[in-house]
Amino acid sequence: MMNSLNRRVRILSAGAALALITLAAPQAFAATPADTLVEGFAIDDIITIDPGEAFELSTAEVTANSYSKLVGLDPADTSKVVGDLAESWTVSDDGMTYTFKLKPDLKFASGNPLTAEDVAFSFERAVKLDKSPAFLLTQFGLTGDNVTEKAKATDATTFTFTVDKAYAPSFVLNVLTATVASVVDKKVVMEHAKPMTPSAEYKYDTDFGNEWMKTGYAGSGPYKTMAWRANEAVIMEANPNYYGEKPKLKRVIYRHMKESSGQRLALENGDIDVARNLEPNDLKAIEGKDGLSSTSAPKGTIYYFSLNQKNENLAKPEVVEAMKYLVDYDAIGATLIKGIGEIHQTFLPKGQLGASDEKPYKLDVAKAKELLEKAGLKDGFSVTMDVRNTQPVTGIAESVQQTLAQAGIKLSIIPGDGKQTLTKYRARTHDIYIGQWGSDYFDPNSNAETFTVNPDNSDEGKSKTLAWRNAWDVPKELSDASKGALLEKDAAKRAAIYQDLQKKVAAVSPFVIVFQQTEVAGYSSKLKGYKLGPSFDTNFVHTVSKD
Amino acid sequence: MSVVEQTPKPYSRDWLLSDRPTSRHQARLGRAYVIWRRFSENRLALVGLGIIILLLFVAAFANVLAPHNPVQGDLMNARLLPPGSPGYWLGTDDQGRDILSRLIHGSRLTLMVIVLVAVIAAPIGLIVGTVSGYAGGWIDAILMRITDIFLAFPKLVLALALVAALGPGIENAILAIAVTSWPPYARIARAETLTFRNSEFISAVKLMGASPFRIVLRHVMPLCLSSLIVRVTLDMAGIILTAAGLGFLGLGAQPPLPEWGAMIASGRRFILDQWWVAAMPGFAILIVSLGFNLLGDGLRDALDPKEAGQ
Questions:
Q1: Whole-number mean pLDDT of chain B?
Q2: Which range is least confidently modeled, A76-80, A108-112, B150-154, B270-274?
Q3: TM spans, by residue (chain B) (predicted)?
Q4: Is the peptide bond before A455 cis (omega within 30 degrees of 0)?
Q5: Which of A218, A457, A484, B69 could bond to A188 as cystine, CB 3.0-4.6 Å?
Q6: DSSP string, A212-256
């Protein structure tokens, strides 16, 4: 009897001890490795990591940390451009030819030497592939036929770039800081190129490694991308061949985490070092905790929803105007985006040249109803909105749904992940799309062009700007003003043109701009040097170290 | 000597319990009374019935009962208020909408899902099961193998796949749940049918020249009904949970519909600081599911004397 009791006690106590161990274990092993930076980040918008094709916000950060460009923004003062691969550059007197001299002894992560030949190849590849971001380069007059002439290597370290007009040099250089101008390793890329059958749409007999590069890597940045697994993770490792300041940490992992509260919990438990998509309430909670800090930076990103002009109801100018009166800007600013954004109603984000801070619209249901009646839609209408199912866009979409309902407009929300909604948007098959726009380069022309230029409004249009995506046939006067500003060398005059343009666009465009993002990140105080940049391709991680 | 038969007063207790009913009508009422007596002996079953009646009442008078508009919130002034705030008994959600009003209106959606699923799935299961059980042979083999195929998939996964294919929305969710929930009913109906098909009364009907169609419809199906009703009632909790699960995954009701599962999904973001946003619809689902389970349990005891004492 005594014996059996003892046995039971033993089993019980062993069980209790085991339970205690398993209970204590997560805390003991939760810390991330000392040589690895782990970021919790919603990366569901990544559809490719090929810099010649990628045009998404999360991808911009990945490519910025793994590829180098000729020039980059000066992180200390974003109005300046500094050399990255380029040691120096000159502009010819007629303002058309740019000559870049590369730094000596550059190497790719693969160990291949990086020469002007690779730079020329990267330009040729981006132009010939003609994916979404190609317009950044083709706007300088590059085409598949002349790109080898206009962007060429004159010797191993000299690259010349010829543009078709005498643009403001700062504009050209700013554009070259965009992801699409990243330099790829010609040898590695062409090893993985797949033969193609030339057709009317695609004239070349190779895919320039595009298929392999969707998940592959051929760059020279501080980190090399080891793997991207959709909706799971991006894994990067330090590039030993990097020519600049060596990365401080050996490995960087972006873990796909959608939920703000999940990121907050993971950050508090030490499972991740940085939480990137915190919502206002979670950010507030983190700010009060020991061992955690937060940082923020205004971003050149604006959140908007846009009305596809192919929809006959949305194409009516009165409806377009009414929509702008049917957003509860004040309440959204005070609640849904508190701390992560500021109400903003013009297409240039604060901080860029000529940005206007005017807020002509506020919630006014009576006025909107009047406008709808004028449009012959007194009883409202039904319409759909494609919404990526992350915050804050879903919250804003629901708020807009409520305010639209007050004017009789029945909005149905179609949720989807980033990939689904974007694909639909780019195919111009949406009614209303809600999303964000991040400037491709830190110059007002980036936004001015995408919001106001649409040279070919057919479905086959080559220039896939936001105006094109929403089938907005932009009034010629506006496009011309936007193009004129581009050649204006006097900064003050250029700013004035943009200010006037913003006012006109706010009045007639099918874009309802809601707010400008302030990017926030909560991070563990163990990190040193963690900073967010002014744009998505300046969120560098190679300067981060860990205690 | 003559025995004076005292006829009990119609509709009195004795009349209902009489073992020699004088009319069909009396027999039916008598049987219903016995079932009710057996059912009402079970206190918990009465609680379940009470919950369901309350649900029906709330759903019927949602417009009168709800203190606020369920889809129009006050984002500016009433966002994420805790339970007990003046005017908002159960608090408000992230769009400033009253959670109580949303729960009340959401009961309609819940009820709609349950009723439609039951109306679609139960007859399909009943027909497939009785036909297959009575016909036997290759008809039985084919129908039961189809049933097996459906049973081989996990219910929720199959429903997910269907909704993903049909597109999110509450109608498609109902369809998906119905399509995935008939096979168990078919199995039960078949098993019941097999126990009757060789019994004397069926043979008697056959001898009188009844067609197989008539036999299945008029003589087999009614006998399968009681066990089917029990099973459907017990399944209703599962249906609610499946619908809520689809809503939670964003595949069921779409915003701003106050579907309980979708409400939990949107409250999940605030679960650390504003627990009530997710907890309140959770309680609602819990209570209603419990109600259906208790009711089903009681019905089984009442309708199925074989299992009553177990």
A1: 88
A2: A76-80
A3: 44-66, 109-135, 156-181, 229-254, 274-296
A4: no
A5: A218
A6: HHTT-----SSEEEEEEETTTEEEEEE-TT-SSSPPSSSEEEEEE
Does residue A505 fall inside a structural domain?
A: yes
- pLDDT of B302 reads 86
pLDDT of residue A297: 85
> From the list B79, B250, B269, which residue is nearest A391 (CB)?
B269
pTM for the whole structure: 0.72
CA distance A397 to chain B (A): 9
Domain presence at residue A63:
no
Verify that A368 and A452 share a domain, yes or no: yes
Is the previous residue joined to A240 through a cis bond, with omega within 30 degrees of 0?
Answer: no
Nearest Cα residue to B143 out of B183, B178, B194: B183
The answer to whether A264 and A524 are in contact (CB under 8 A) is no
d(CA B70, CA B91): 13
- Residue to substitute from B69, B71, B95, interface A, most A β-carbons within 10 A: B95
Lowest-pLDDT choice from A314-318, A414-418, B291-295:
A414-418
Based on the domain organization, do A202 and A307 belong to the same domain? no
A285, part of any domain: yes
Same domain, A343 and A476: yes
Mean pLDDT of A268-287: 89
Mean pLDDT over the full length of chain A = 87
d(CA A16, CA A8): 12
Orientation of helix B170-196 relative to helix B99-135, angle to 10°: 40
Q: How many domains does chain A have?
A: 3
Task: Name the 3-class secondary structure at A154.
Answer: strand
Q: Is the peptide bond before B212 cis (omega within 30 degrees of 0)?
A: no
Instruction: Kindly list the residues from chain A whose CB atom is less than 8 angstroms away from the CB atom of residue B254.
Output: 412-415
Closest CA to A534 of A75, A22, A158, A26: A75
Q: Which residue of A has its CA nearest to B274?
A: A281
Cα Rg, chain A, nearest whole Å: 26
Domain shared by A103 and A202, yes or no: yes
* Structure token pair of residue A255: 């873990």
The 3-state secondary structure of A515-529, one letter per residue: EEEEEEEEEECCEEC
pLDDT at residue A22 tops 60: no
- Same domain membership, residue A156 and residue A31: no
Could you tell me the two tokens for B163? Answer: 């909704």
Whether A415 sits inside 8 A of B71 (CB atoms) is: no
pLDDT of residue A27: 46
Count of pairs with CB atoms under 8 A, one residue in A, one in B: 61
Task: State the number of CA atoms in the 13 A half-sphere of B276 facing the CB.
Answer: 19
- The verdict on residue A62 lying in a domain is no
CB atoms within 10 A of CB A494: 22
> Span A53-77, mean pLDDT?
88
Share of chain B above pLDDT 70, in %: 96
Q: Which domain holds residue A266?
A: 2-48+222-291+525-546
